[in-house]
Amino acid sequence: MNPSLAMALLVLLPLTAAALAFVWPRAGRWLGRATVALAALGVARLAKEVMGREGLVHRVGGWGAPLGIDLRADGLAALMLALTTIMGLAAVLYAPSYFSAHQQGRNPPAPPGCPPGRDGATETKLAGTDSGLSERWFWPLFLFLWASLNALFLSGDIFNLYVTLELLGFSAVALVALGGGRDALAAAMRYLLTSLAASLFYLLGVALVYGQCGTVDLSLLADQAEPTPALWTALILMTCGLAAKAALFPLHFWLPAAHSNAPAPVSALLSALVVKGAFYILLRLWFQAFAELRAPGLMQALGGLGAAAVLWGAARALRQNRLKLLVAYSTVAQLGYLFLVFPLVVSAATGLGAWTGALLFLAAHACAKTAMFLAAGNIIQAAGHDRLPELDGIGRALPVSAFAIGLAGISLVGLPPSGGFVGKWLLLNASLSQGQWWWVAVILAGSLLAAGYLLRVLNHAFVEAPRAAVFQPAPPVMEWTAFGFALLAVLLGLGAGWPAELLRAGAPVAGPLLTGGGAP
């Protein structure tokens, strides 16, 4: 397969499948499976071509920038495209059984006497809605979200990044609303309004950049951008908008309700991929288009917000009595680690280690959080709710799901040999090498807090229940899908060499991964 053809197909394939799923809803499952298989071939071909090169460019229609639209792929884009395909596999394995179980009424009603918290109700609302209708709309929306993500990761200019970001936001909001009930709709509306306001900030920045530079192409901007007040204003506007979409503290207020009220496969997609789209654009802006405008103080400020997210999100997760809310606040915390890349990618000697560490952690987080949200969906189906104090002994009924949470927790805490450990180790090494010891304290404190809230979940799962609780079984494919992605998060640490080498392609810095040239 020609690499240019692969780039085009990675956008057109899920987009075409989404259109067909709208017309023929019954074919949604098969369209999803076919898309995963074909997309995997395209991503493998693209990653092979990108390896060892600065990147690939496909000129859509033969017109190059600035008149035409360019699709670009480098190591970062290839990694993100691989993640969309892997998460697509999770969806096509898990979602059919998930929606079928709800449609058959296998999710028992939640016991009375425990009103929902202010962050929303449990996922049992889905059982009271037309679950067949929910699945009918899940497949086209999921495929449309997939096409938007692929287009975002391949876009070569800041305006097309805006377009794809908007399409991504609309499909994500609609997927959240599939949860049904007042709380899910309220969470979706809050998400929508936040997304629209953030998009307005970003678009204003794009307009200022175009007025100042006369182009929106990322590569051309890298050559033309100069530190003027207009460009600084544009960058601040775009960064604020993207920080809200990425749920960076303190703009994370929309995320817990949206992630905890959405159906389980949707929650997994939101946490693993959707919030990473805005972070990806921030990387493109600050390390590709406007690298000359990186001010140390501003980079430290972004890192400081990431550190605050790590500590605040983990502290909030410790206080939650709902499993999905705990996992959602954990996402707020784990996203904070990614923003440590901004103050650490400043040194030619250790910058590549920080760059690679943050992105390996991103991949490990995507797999681990997918496993946790899918396992939470299994537990909700078995118990009818996700209130931790009432889940004592759930590990006996769903041992595979309970062990999936434990395995995913190994990566989130950063224990060897997981992918989370490799990512955090590289960030720690870069911090110590550059004398920025305060990030070391944040990473270690965040890991201890993560261990605390994960141990809370496991304690309830494996403790001896004081009274016999009735839990319904979950379909094996749902349990083993969650376990498989938890295992993948761990195995990523053992096989980190290939993605680390891939991330060298087009990286904004060079040098060894670890001080002295060692490998993790």
Structural notes for this entry:
The protein is mainly alpha-helical. The protein has one domain. Helices cover 71% and strands 2% of the residues. The protein contains 20 helices and 2 strands. It has helices spanning 3-23, 28-50, 75-103, 131-154, 158-177, 181-213, 218-224, 229-245, 255-261, 264-289, 296-318, 323-338, 341-344, 351-383, 394-397, 399-413, 419-433, 437-462, 476-494, 497-502; strands at 56-60, 69-73. Strands 1-2 form a two-stranded antiparallel ribbon. A hairpin with an 8-residue loop joins strand 1 (56-60) and strand 2. Helix 9 (255-261) packs antiparallel against helix 10 (264-289). The longest helix is centred in the middle third of the chain and has 33 residues, at 181-213. The chain is globular, with a radius of gyration of 22 Å.
Short description:
With 520 residues, the chain is mainly alpha-helical.
Write the layout of secondary structure elements.
Layout: H1 3-23, H2 28-50, E1 56-60, E2 69-73, H3 75-103, H4 131-154, H5 158-177, H6 181-213, H7 218-224, H8 229-245, H9 255-261, H10 264-289, H11 296-318, H12 323-338, H13 341-344, H14 351-383, H15 394-397, H16 399-413, H17 419-433, H18 437-462, H19 476-494, H20 497-502
Antiparallel strand pairs: 1-2
